[in-house]
Design brief:
Length: about 375
């Protein structure tokens, strides 16, 4: 009988340690305990797939917004509840469900299809986006693109449906969204447009006086017929424009630009603007003084920084100097023997009288074979 073949012992294979960060399910007990013990807790995320699904699904889009040029946008009518009072009342009159609810509404011509497209985005996401390059950018055909249109009739391509908005500045787009929100009685949309205008006009500086003069025209004109875009019955947009102008005067414009802006608004139709401007300026004189005080300080800091930068560059052998070759060690350069003598003088002075016997003793014992000069 043959002897049984011995089974080889299992070999342990060392595994290389992974340099990757440990992957942990944010919902696991380990991750929760990491947070309890002040470690790096991976944030728990809340799912918003429901609204995302509604935004993209064609299921039960039972209400249509039809623009004057025939571009249609089908949406879920239930999402109109609590939004635009005009649309909600049209679909659910008196807050009730009619036996045969309407399935579409024809919008007036002023409801431009591109504007309606962005409003549909807001209905689903509570935000709308528009992509021109900055507030001063003039809108072109390439800036327009339908994202939510359900039907675009033949002959009404995205480019053919946009000519009335081509050539306007980017800020005017948000003014038009605000105007439609006023007509639709859509407070949330008004708030979103107002927020975008504050961001690009007040919080972002360096806008030209010519651009802000256009803002005065579209907000302080007496009626829509002569250039006004929004009703602005509570004067909120006028406050934005006045704040933007004062902020630019204090933080961005030169004296020449400020004077040119004032000269361009000397006509009688701007009396209302100057009245509001002077009132706001008087009420906020304390803040304006802080801005006027900070402006020359900021200019002086910038000038000092530039001057110090040029000085440092010159000392390091940079542009405008012939000292050295640009090497950081160039200022330390000198005759080698001179550096050696300075070193000896400094250290011999520190050793004093006791230095000679110690050095001599070291040489007598054979433990020190180098002279001080050789150490250098």
């Amino acid at each position: 009988m043959a002897a049984p073949t011995p089974t080889p012992a299992p070999q342990l294979k060392p595994e290389l340690a992974s340099l990757q960060r440990e992957k942990i399910d944010p919902r696991s007990a380990r991750n929760l305990l990491r947070g309890a013990f002040k470690q790096n807790l991976q944030k728990l995320t809340r799912s918003c797939r429901h609204m995302c699904f509604l935004f993209h699904t064609p299921i039960d889009r039972n209400f249509g917004l039809i623009t004057a040029c025939g571009v249609e946008f089908n949406i879920h009518s239930v999402l109109l509840i609590g939004g635009s009072k005009m649309l909600q009342e049209g679909v659910f009159p008196g807050g009730t469900m009619p036996p045969s609810p309407p399935t579409f509404v024809h919008l007036p011509e002023r409801f431009h299809p591109i504007l309606v497209d962005r409003i549909v985005s807001f209905i689903y996401t509570s935000d709308y986006a528009f992509g021109p390059r900055g507030v001063g950018h003039v809108l072109e055909q390439k800036d327009f693109e339908f994202k939510n249109a359900t039907l675009i009739p033949d002959g009404s391509s995205p480019t053919a449906a946009t000519p009335t908005l081509v050539g306007i500045h980017g800020f005017a787009f948000h003014f038009r969204i605000y105007a439609l929100a006023e007509e639709m009685e859509y407070d949330a949309l008004k708030s979103a447009a107002h927020h975008k205008l504050v961001n690009i006009l007040v919080q972002q500086h360096k806008k030209s006086p010519f651009l802000l003069k256009e803002l005065v025209n579209v907000t302080f004109a007496p009626s829509v017929e002569v250039g006004r875009i929004c009703k602005d019955e509570d004067g909120v947009l006028q406050q934005v424009v006045i704040a933007a102008i004062i902020a630019h005067e204090c933080n961005g414009w030169s004296e020449k630009e400020t004077r040119e802006f004032a000269d361009s608004l000397e006509h009688p139709e701007y009396v209302g603007f100057w009245h509001g401007y002077n009132m706001v300026k008087e009420e906020n004189r304390d803040l304006i003084k802080l801005g006027e005080y900070a402006k020359p300080l900021a200019a002086e800091r910038k000038k000092t920084k530039n001057r110090n930068g040029r000085k440092a560059k010159k000392e390091m052998g940079g542009e405008g100097t012939t000292k050295g070759d640009g090497n950081l060690r160039a200022p330390l350069a000198g005759p080698p023997r001179q550096r050696e003598n300075k070193f000896k003088k400094r250290h011999e002075g520190k050793r004093g009288v006791g230095a000679v016997p110690i050095a001599a003793k070291g040489r007598e014992d054979g433990n020190m074979d180098l002279e001080d000069d050789e150490l250098l």
